[in-house]
């Protein structure tokens, strides 16, 4: 009996040899070695040029513009998306129809097409005005002055984001058990307080992952604004390589900064996910 117990003691058990896992590790090691040799041994990457322009003033300015555009599009898109999501969840049918049309329109048209359209808005509306419909006009502005590459980029990206974020918010709010709202009403909570204190804290667990991914997507999507001569990160490196013809190293500069910003955003997203997932993690 004692001998059998000694043989079955898991503390002294040895792991089973798994040849396929070791083969997989070996293949990865070979591929990684080939990648390192390719990156270090190919002189056409021109790493010295990459280092030279990595912190170039115009590149840093373009990086700042890219981050600014992404933040502005995310903030404005979140506000508009929240309103559209509320309309989708409302019991008023015309509001739901308008919200459905909004999401279908701005999610269905490619962002590049929307950016070019908004940049050329002055062709349709030479003058922008504020006033009462079919009544007096309080102010008028030249559309070519108002619709600059910056305003066109912010409008286009914000509208695209509002459509995607509306669906994300709607799904997050819908994921909360309706019994939570019923319990809040039974306790005397008003609708606004129920939303802020009961529904949203639980919905954020569902909202944060796709919303964070959407923020990363809009950051990368800002590269599209280079087609309307917006001085973002990609446009900044394009200006340099159009002058020096060093295309590959300048694209590597852009790739480096995109990766840095996306990595930081991903780390922040993971932290938010852990915060709002407290109390919902499965026991291990």
TrEMBL record:
TM region(s), chain numbering: 20-40, 60-86, 146-166, 247-268
An example molecular function term from Gene Ontology annotations: transmembrane transporter activity
Domain ABC transmembrane type-1 intervals: 63-266
Source species, domain of life: Bacteria
A GO CC term assigned to this protein in UniProt: ATP-binding cassette (ABC) transporter complex
InterPro entries: AA_ABC_transptr_permease_3TM, ArtM/GltK/GlnP/TcyL/YhdX-like, MetI-like, MetI-like_sf
Membrane topology, as annotated: Multi-pass membrane protein
Coiled-coil region list: none
Key words, A-Z: Amino-acid transport, Cell membrane, Membrane, Transmembrane, Transmembrane helix, Transport
Pfam families: BPD_transp_1 (PF00528)
Gene3D superfamilies on file: MetI-like
Biological processes per GO annotation: amino acid transport
Compartments in which it is found: Cell membrane
NCBIfam families according to UniProt: HEQRo_perm_3TM
Membership in a protein family: Belongs to the binding-protein-dependent transport system permease family.
Protein name: Amino acid ABC transporter permease
């Amino acid at each position: 009996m004692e001998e059998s117990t000694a043989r079955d003691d898991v503390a002294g058990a040895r792991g089973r040899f798994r040849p396929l896992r070791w083969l997989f590790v070996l293949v990865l090691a070979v591929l990684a070695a080939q990648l390192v040799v390719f990156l270090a041994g190919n002189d056409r990457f021109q790493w010295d040029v990459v280092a030279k322009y990595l912190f170039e003033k115009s590149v840093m300015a373009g990086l700042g513009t890219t981050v600014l555009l992404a933040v502005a599009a995310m903030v404005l898109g979140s506000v508009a998306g929240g309103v559209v999501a509320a309309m989708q969840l409302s019991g008023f049918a015309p509001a739901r129809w308008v919200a459905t049309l909004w999401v279908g329109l701005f999610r269905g048209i490619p962002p590049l097409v929307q950016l070019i359209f908004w940049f050329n808005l002055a062709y349709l509306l030479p003058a922008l005005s504020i006033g009462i419909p079919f009544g007096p006009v309080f102010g008028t502005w030249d559309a070519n002055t108002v619709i600059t590459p910056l305003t066109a980029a912010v409008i286009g990206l914000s509208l695209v984001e509002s459509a995607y974020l509306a669906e994300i918010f709607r799904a997050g709010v819908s994921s909360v058990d309706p019994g939570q709202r019923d319990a809040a009403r039974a306790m005397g909570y008003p609708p606004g307080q129920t939303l802020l204190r009961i529904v949203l804290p639980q919905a954020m667990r569902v909202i944060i992952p796709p919303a964070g991914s959407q923020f990363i997507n809009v950051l990368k999507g800002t590269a599209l604004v280079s087609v309307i001569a917006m001085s973002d990160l990609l446009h900044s490196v394009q200006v340099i390589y159009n002058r020096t013809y060093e295309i590959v190293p300048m694209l590597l500069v852009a790739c480096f900064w995109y990766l840095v910003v996306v990595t930081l955003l991903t780390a922040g997203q993971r932290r938010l996910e852990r915060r709002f997932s407290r109390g919902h993690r499965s026991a291990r």
